[in-house]
Design goal:
Elements: E1 10-13, E2 19-21, H1 28-39, E3 44-48, H2 54-65, E4 69-74, E5 77-81, E6 95-96, H3 101-111, E7 117-121, H4 132-141, E8 144-148, E9 152-158, E10 167-169, H5 175-185, E11 191-196, H6 203-210, E12 215-220, E13 223-229, E14 238-240, H7 245-257, E15 262-269, H8 276-283, E16 287-296, E17 299-307, H9 328-337, E18 341-345, H10 357-367, E19 371-375, E20 378-382, E21 394-395, H11 401-413, E22 418-420, H12 433-440, E23 443-446
Parallel strand pairs: 2-15, 3-14, 6-7, 10-11, 21-22
Antiparallel strand pairs: 1-22, 1-23, 3-5, 4-5, 7-9, 8-9, 11-13, 12-13, 15-17, 16-17, 18-20, 19-20
Helix pairs in contact: 1-2, 1-3, 1-6, 2-3, 3-5, 4-5, 7-9, 7-11, 9-10, 9-11
The protein binds shikimate-3-phosphate (S3P) and phosphoenolpyruvate.
The site of phosphoenolpyruvate has 10 residues, from helix 3.
Organism: Thioclava atlantica
Subcellular location: Cytoplasm
Main location: cytoplasm
């Protein structure tokens, strides 16, 4: 769990060209789901390439508390002996999901249609995040939630003893909400239907299908409609987790802004519900080539070759927000080095992530000499162009891994060093970030800890 230790101040200094091969860790979204679906299956699921970040380790611990046998066999090699759909035991301890919105929301969904109670909590960041978006739909299945005012953790969920299936149109673009409803639907008789206005990341659908559930998707006048047949027998699988495009974003963007750089980031998922950043960067003029395109672990992947590029600002289509939702912080860093203005509309969901990411990036970039404009739903970055980004300030990371990593990348190309007050949250999603970036030539130091 993050946020419990001593804050680690980190500083990043201007470096020479970044070169080499950046093997980023396994996908966080897929890692959570592999553990949860493994726990809901009959038999032993084997997982390779699991992300061993704090968020995922907290989900592994939670699956043990619900009765699954979860074992680490070697780096990234795990097995889960599942209890089957509807087989969760009542945990005898509070489920602490640390910093992870995905962990807590998906697990709440997965237990909501079993006749058990579970109490959930998390770190100071997670305890501020809205859970009503999951407790509203699981109440329709018959579950009850008792949390703090405003639907905040800690919260106890009483699962439905006699669940009914649900038809639910998600009020916001959220793969976590969609997934919570689908996982709850597993133990409800009949069909559970989720309708999304714009499709969000589809790992839950792909993996449910892979584990043997009957699930279909169609585009209708209502939107993107997903139909799941309840009470399937999920069958244990071998899951090879592809590398995380959201982690790949950091070395990719660093190479684009540090003059003379050329790196390769192999095996990065190019799932169309996740690849928005790469499309946006290409539109900004980025020299990125997609080599060796293939399928790994049921996901389209490619090796990305990235060279330093002179970039220009643009308007990022709001319709692309879901496909790059976690990449806006690092995109705003790239935009600071571009020529011209980058306008990012349709991003209000960033306000309810690990931090208010619009505010965290705006304040940190301003402190480092970048002109910013913002409203509730939009972030606008005025690129510094050939003059360069001044840097020289400390940014607050607000217990948010993506904010911390973004400012470390800023420091790699800014004129003066850039610091973050606390880089410890980086361990939630990218525990090898500092070593990996140092291997490419970056200069990040810990000032303490
Ligand atoms: O389903 C998932 O694995 C995730 C969904 C997204 O959150 P929302 O569902 O809140 O958009 C994303 O920001 C998060 O990092 C992971
Ligand atoms: C938003 C994120 O994660 P979560 O919602 O799982 O905390 C993220 O990793 O950027």
């Amino acid at each position: 769990m993050s946020g419990h230790g001593t804050p680690i101040k980190m500083t990043s200094r201007k470096c020479g060209p970044l070169t080499g091969i950046a093997e980023v860790p396994g996908d966080k979204s897929i890692s959570h789901r592999a553990l949860i679906l493994g726990a809901l299956s009959v038999g032993e699921t084997r997982i390779s390439g699991l992300l061993e970040g704090e968020d995922v380790l907290d989900t592994a611990k939670a699956m043990r508390a619900f009765g699954a046998e979860v074992t680490q066999h070697g780096p990234g090699e795990w097995s889960v002996h599942g209890v089957g759909v509807g087989g969760f035991a009542e945990p005898d301890q509070v489920i602490d999901c640390g910093n992870s919105g995905t962990g807590v929301r998906l697990i709440m969904g997965a237990m909501a249609t079993s006749p058990i109670a579970a109490t959930f909590t998390g770190d100071a960041s997670l305890r501020k995040r809205p859970m009503g978006r999951v407790t509203d739909p699981i109440a329709m299945f018959g579950a009850q939630a008792y949390g703090r005012q405003g639907g905040k953790l800690p919260m106890t969920i009483l699962g439905a003893a006699d669940p009914v299936p649900v038809r639910y149109a998600t009020p916001m673009a959220s793969a976590q909400v969609k997934s919570a409803v689908l996982l709850a639907g597993l133990n409800a008789p009949g069909q559970t239907v989720v309708i999304e206005k714009t499709p969000t990341r589809d790992h839950t659908e792909r993996m449910l299908r892979g584990f043997g559930a009957e699930i279909s998707t169609e585009e209708t006048a209502e939107g993107h409609v997903i139909t799941l047949q309840g009470r399937p027998e999920l069958v244990a699988q071998e899951v090879a987790v592809p590398r995380d495009p959201s982690s790949a974003a950091f070395p990719v963007c660093a190479a684009l802004i540090v003059p003379g750089s050329e790196i390769v980031v192999p095996g990065v998922s190019q799932n169309p519900t996740r690849n928005g950043l790469f499309i946006t960067l290409k539109e900004m003029g980025a020299d990125i080539t997609f080599e060796n395109e293939r399928e790994e672990g049921g996901e389209p992947v490619a090796d990305l070759r990235v060279r330093y590029s002179e970039l220009h600002g643009l308007e990022v289509p709001a319709a692309r927000a879901s496909a790059q939702i976690d990449e806006y912080p690092i995109l705003s860093v790239v935009a600071a080095f571009a020529t011209g203005v980058t306008r990012m509309p349709g991003v209000h969901e960033l306000r309810v992530k690990e931090s208010d990411r619009i505010d965290a990036m705006a304040r940190g970039l301003e402190a480092n000499g970048v002109k910013i404009e913002e409203d509730e739903d939009t972030l606008i970055v005025h690129g510094c162009g050939p003059q360069g980004v001044p840097g020289g300030a400390i940014a607050a990371s607000h217990l948010d891994h993506r904010i911390a990593m973004s400012f470390m990348v800023l420091g790699m190309a800014a004129q003066e060093p850039v610091s973050v007050d606390d880089g410890s949250p980086i361990a939630t999603s990218f525990p090898v970030f500092e070593d990996l970036m140092a291997g490419l030539g970056a200069r990040i130091v810990r000032e303490n800890g």
